[in-house]
Specification:
It is built from 11 helices and 17 strands. It is of the alpha/beta class. It is globular, with a radius of gyration of 20 Å.
Length: 340
């Protein structure tokens, strides 16, 4: 089978790999959609690749086509439509037992980075990582929930966001748009902030009550103006940009909450003025648990949310080079690769 391998300095190769065979507790999936995520660019762009022989892609969605002899049929029926919780750990420590294998105390495997990922026709994973894909959802939607949209859902749940609250969402890429979409569906009033006009327009269609073009307007001043000087109840940063994180803290009200989702650079806050004297809560949110991924999929299906509209491009695996060249411009919506 063909697999996409990042080779450093914004280059990749299509390499031949043996079709995988499952070990006792594993399954093999035929990949139907493999999402492209912003965090892939953190592996695609650097000159040096930590794991240069790994198949890329950490948003897998497909169909079970084989299972190991110790994997019961009820756990992974042949033909079942599934997503993958794209981590594995020791399976013994408390985080692993609770379904947070990315927090494994002995170190975790991240599929698409330290274990073979989904930019290939087939993918081998432990059966315990499978998350059923509701029939109402497409494979592309399942791929989005397997990281980006699931991450948005996880952040909202972690903040315990309430209906009727005012929420500022910094960055309207696929994760930020997912926050905007889900928070709006949950009854929050969302202020969507970005510097790209196209993404700001898209945020409106995903339910944003208002938008701010941070390239033209001071976001903090505008948020204060829209909230009568009080600030928002919650701010979510999906950009990872230090300036956005600072603005998130400054635009959040006393007793408010800031959630850091975007992976980026170091940030600084005025600790006295914007954190201590405001009793501000600042938290991080790293993707989701196995059950959290399943909860997100059920919620998206039940509410019929337009996750499919996050996608602007799909590519065959043979077009992976052009796909990542375009995705690296960060001017598009979400893309996915169809290995077959």
């Amino acid at each position: 089978m063909k697999g996409v391998v990042f080779t450093g300095s914004k280059t990749l190769e299509l390499r031949e790999f043996p079709d995988p065979t499952p070990d006792d507790d594993e399954v093999v999936l035929e990949i139907k959609a493999s999402g492209m995520c912003g965090t892939d660019l953190h592996v695609y762009r650097p000159e040096t690749i930590a794991n240069p022989d790994m198949i890329a892609g950490h948003e897998p969605c497909g169909v079970v086509v084989a299972r190991g002899k110790a994997t019961p049929e009820y756990q992974a029926p042949i033909g079942q439509r599934v997503m993958v919780h794209h981590y594995d750990g020791c399976r013994r420590c408390n985080p692993c037992v609770e379904g947070w294998t990315q927090l494994c105390e002995e170190g975790s495997t991240v599929y698409g980075r330290t274990g073979h990922g989904a930019h290939a026709q087939y993918m081998k994973v432990p059966a315990r990582t499978l998350v059923p894909l509701p029939e109402a959802l497409s494979f592309a939607e399942g791929a989005a929930i397997s990281c980006g949209t699931g991450t948005a859902f996880g952040a909202i749940k972690r903040m315990k966001m309430e209906a009727g609250s005012k929420v500022a969402v910094f960055g309207q890429g696929p994760v930020g748009l997912s926050v905007t979409m889900i928070a709006s569906a949950m009854g929050a009033e969302v202020i969507a902030i970005d510097m790209a006009a196209s993404r700001i327009e898209t945020a409106k269609s995903f339910g944003a009550a208002s938008t701010i073009d941070a390239s033209q307007t001071d976001a903090v001043d505008e948020i204060k103006a829209q909230t009568g000087g009080r600030g928002v109840d919650y701010a979510v940063d999906c950009s990872g940009a230090p300036a956005a994180l600072d603005a998130a803290a400054r635009s959040t009200r006393t007793w408010g909450t800031v959630c850091c989702v975007g992976i980026g650079q170091r940030a600084s806050f005025d600790i006295d003025k914007d954190v201590i004297h405001k009793q501000l809560t600042i938290m991080g949110s790293w993707t989701f648990s196995v059950s959290g991924q399943a909860d997100c999929a059920r919620y998206i299906a039940e509410k019929n949310l337009p996750v499919q509209e996050l996608f602007t491009h799909s590519f065959s695996i043979d077009d992976a080079k052009a796909a990542y060249e375009l995705f690296d411009t960060q001017t598009t919506g979400k893309g996915f690769i169809v290995p077959n």
